[in-house]
Amino acid sequence: MVSSLFNDTLLVNTQSHDYPIIITQNSDMGAQIAPYIRGKQVLIVTNDTVAPLYLEPLQTTLSHDFDVAVCVLPDGEQYKNQDSINQIYDVLMTHHFNRDVTLVALGGGVVGDMTGFAAASFMRGVDFIQIPTTLLSQVDSSVGGKTGINHPKGKNMIGAFWQPRMVLADMSTLTTLPARELSAGLAEVIKYALIMDADFLTWLEEKLPAMMALDLAVLGEAVKRCCSYKAKVVAQDEREAGQRALLNFGHTFGHVIETHEGYGNWLHGEAVAAGMVQAAVLSEMLGWLNQSDVIRIKNVLAQANLPTTPPLIATETALGLMGHDKKVKRGQIRLILLKSLGEAVLTTEFATEQLRDVLTPATC
Ligand SMILES: NC(=O)c1ccc[n+]([C@@H]2O[C@H](COP(=O)([O-])OP(=O)(O)OC[C@H]3O[C@@H](n4cnc5c(N)ncnc54)[C@H](O)[C@@H]3O)[C@@H](O)[C@H]2O)c1
Ligand SMILES: O=C(O)C(=O)C[C@@H](O)[C@H](O)[C@H](O)COP(=O)(O)O
Ligand SMILES: [Zn+2]
């Protein structure tokens, strides 16, 4: 579909440093990011799906001014682990790169999270830049500095808060993204509406068809709105002491699904979608949402081709996996639930029996 050019820049203010999110189309990626590279060494980290699509022009442009190395990782959530981080370190060491290096993440959230973690830990911290190429990474993972890898028993269990120097979201990259991955990104977009802005939910209900038809102007508008919400939250609570936890809506349930089903079998966004329904059902049990709200949530997720029911997981197994959630405090599971559409809270105001009911197959 032909659409008008989208161009916008947002600023993220954090205690670490401020950085821009450039949202654009058909960009010369190398030229866009070059001004934010402070040394002469660059390591581009990508994967074997994204490399054939977008690596060559980026590498060529950067090679005019920088000493550029490349690390191509295997594609998949199942490779978001220490082996991949070691591969990044190996390339950095082989090239004798030092604290002047800037790591460039070219890919989706998996590449971005791992590149950020490698940057946070190599020589105790070097610069990195995010070039997110999935909708999910453009609306969420490239912003805010949560970096890391999975443990076999839990998602993102090892990591660091480490902010990028800049984020370049080129909407044109979405034209090659598989439809299932676009839908996975829409889950995080819908998440922002449910936790922060009921008017945005209404906007989405109208605009989802255009987004799914790859109208880049509408997608760009959605990316801008989501990044603005996230930038605002991260500016107030960079390290998740409080308010930032709201961005975890659906994730305590969703991470259980991803871990239990085997990393990569349920996409992150798919698991979060089903998890948001579970959280909404629990919110309804508490009298905070009404039945029509829950139906509306299920409908908007279904409209985006997302699952609204979790896979079969034994209740005790799910509770055991939930125990690893990073929001657990003094042994107590804390959940993000909805007080109303557009308003989320971090809470322990639910009975364990209610949580068990939600986790019991067929309740949602
Ligand atoms: N750090 C954060 O704040 C944060 C936020 C949300 C999600 N995450 C993490 O992000 C990950 C999910 O990210 P994702 O949904 O981007 O998945 P992903 O990185 O696995 O990318 C999805 C798939 O699309 C491919 N791909 C990427 N760009 C493409 C393009 N332009 N054209 C064609 N194919 C392309 C990838 O190779 C992969 O196969 C999870 O690990 C999740 O935990 C992190
Ligand atoms: O940025 C955040 O904060 C989020 O929680 C965004 C989530 O969408 C993202 O999936 C994040 O990686 C989950 O973090 P975790 O701390 O639960 O691992
Ligand atoms: Zn997420």
Automatic annotation (TrEMBL):
Query: Looking at the record's lineage, which domain of life comes first?
Result: Bacteria
Matching InterPro entries = Dehydroquinate_synthase (IPR050071), DHQ_synth_AroB (IPR016037), DHQ_synth_fam (IPR030963), DHQS/DOIS_N (IPR030960), DHQS_C (IPR056179)
The segment(s) forming the 3-dehydroquinate synthase N-terminal domain are 71-183
Q: 3-dehydroquinate synthase C-terminal domain: from which residue to which, for each copy?
A: 185-328
The EC designation for this entry is 4.2.3.4
Q: Where in the cell is it found?
A: Cytoplasm
Top-level class of the enzyme under EC nomenclature: lyase
Functional pathway: Metabolic intermediate biosynthesis; chorismate biosynthesis; chorismate from D-erythrose 4-phosphate and phosphoenolpyruvate: step 2/7
CDD domains xref list:
DHQS
- Keyword entries, A-Z: Amino-acid biosynthesis, Aromatic amino acid biosynthesis, Cobalt, Cytoplasm, Lyase, Metal-binding, NAD, Nucleotide-binding, Zinc
Coiled coil where?
A: none
How many cofactor units bind, and how? Answer: Binds 1 divalent metal cation per subunit. Can use either Co(2+) or Zn(2+).
**Which cofactors does this protein require?**
NAD(+); Co(2+); Zn(2+)
Function statement: Catalyzes the conversion of 3-deoxy-D-arabino-heptulosonate 7-phosphate (DAHP) to dehydroquinate (DHQ).
Regarding protein family, the annotation reads: Belongs to the sugar phosphate cyclases superfamily. Dehydroquinate synthase family.
User: What is the recorded name of this protein?
Assistant: 3-dehydroquinate synthase
